[in-house]
Amino acid sequence: MILAQLTDTHVKVRGKLAYRKIDTAAHLARAVATLNALDPQPDLVALTGDLVDFGKPAEYEHLREILGPLRAPCLLLPGNHDDRGELRAAFPEHDYLPRTGFLQYATDCGPLRLVALDTVIPMRGDGELCAERLAWLDRTLAAAPERPTVVMMHHPPFVTGIAHMDKLGLAGKEGFAAVIARHRQVERIICGHVHRSIQCRIVHTIASTCPASCHQVALDLRPDGPSAFVLEPPGYQLHQWIDGAGLITHTAVIGDFDGPYPFYDAAGRLID
Questions:
Q1: 107-165: per-residue pLDDT in tens?
Q2: Which domains, ranges and CATH numbers included, belong to the chain?
Q3: Which among 253, 254, 250 has a CA at the least distance from the CA of 3?
Q4: Kind plus residue range of the DSSP H or E element containing 88
Q5: SS3 20
Q6: How confident is the model at residue 91 (pLDDT cuts 50, 70, 90)?
Q7: pTM (2 decimals)?
Q8: What angle (nearest 5°) sits at the alpha carbon of residue 205, between those of residues 203 and 211?
Q9: What is the dihedral of CA 201, 237, 10, 174, to 10 degrees?
Q10: Residues 44, 206, 52, 38: is their CA dihedral positive or negative?
Q11: Is 30 helix (H, G, I), strand (E, B) or coil?
Q12: Comparing C-alpha atoms, which of 105, 22, 77 is closest to residue 191?
């Protein structure tokens, strides 16, 4: 079973660039084409928040259009740039999305259970896991203790070392870790928000962030590092469940590159 992850797509209204620099719609279209060309195909694509840039209906309409050619089914999760009501309205056929309240849910895909957790505080960049959301997560994980589970969320439940992003971090990390500690079936916690690939241990499992499909946050670990982005290659992740091995994650870049070239010649000799 292969779960593809895209994140922080930041789609804007048609013709508008993010930060007057980045054509996020074109980047997402290339990401969709990249996933469509994979063999084997992903069983499911998870988009872990900041789907659009300002939560506008016209942005969600544009997002729908770009995602239309995607071959694999997709799951949507809000980020701090999203609007819950507008997201629901734009994707009414996504009936796993609750019609009221937090946009969080659980669904099964092959051997895995996917639990999506809403970390959004409306109109703010930082996130929160309040008592209500943590109680929901605890109940939801307790309902299937034997099934390998991936928890999906926008804000990562750890400090990244990128100071300006940590100022927009997640409140309730300690309570979240306490819930995860009670549920050993959690194989991975996959997140967005930081526009980089980062990993951190959370109790018995690993939490990770995925590169954005467009611009990346600058890798600057100075305590006073400025808020800035770079045009490093956009990326995605593939989380593959292998029986007997567990969940294996591959981070890949989006773009056209030379190759693949063989290591060995026709006689089986290493090419010198």
A1: 999 999 999 999 999 999 999 999 999 999 999 999 999 999 999 999 999 999 999 99
A2: 2-253 (3.60.21.10)
A3: 250
A4: helix 84-90
A5: coil
A6: very high
A7: 0.96
A8: 120
A9: -10
A10: negative
A11: helix
A12: 77
Distances (CA, A) of 120 to 64, 83, 94, 128, 212: 21, 9, 19, 6, 18
Nearest to 53 by CA among 18, 77, 84: 18
Residues 41 and 19: their CA atoms lie apart, in Å, by 33
Return the biggest CA–CA distance within the chain. Answer: 64
Q: Residue 78 corresponds to which tokens in the numbers above?
A: 């809000």
Q: List, for residues 198-225, the tens digit of each pLDDT value.
A: 999 999 999 999 999 999 999 999 999 9
Between CA 228 and CA 230 the distance in angstroms is 7
Which residues have a Cβ under 8 Å from the Cβ of 71 and sit 6 or more positions away? 35, 36, 41
As a whole number of angstroms, the distance between CA 163 and CA 124 comes to: 17
Q: Taking the CB of residue 46, how many other CB atoms lie within 10 A of it?
A: 25
Element (H, E) at 201: strand 198-202
Record the tokens describing residue 113, joined without a space: 């259970």
Q: Which residues, other chains included, contact 173 with Cβ-Cβ below 8 Å and sequence gap of 6+? A: 129, 157, 158
Distance CA 227, CA 230 (A): 11
Residue 256, pLDDT above cutoff 90: no
Which structure tokens are listed for 1?
């079973």
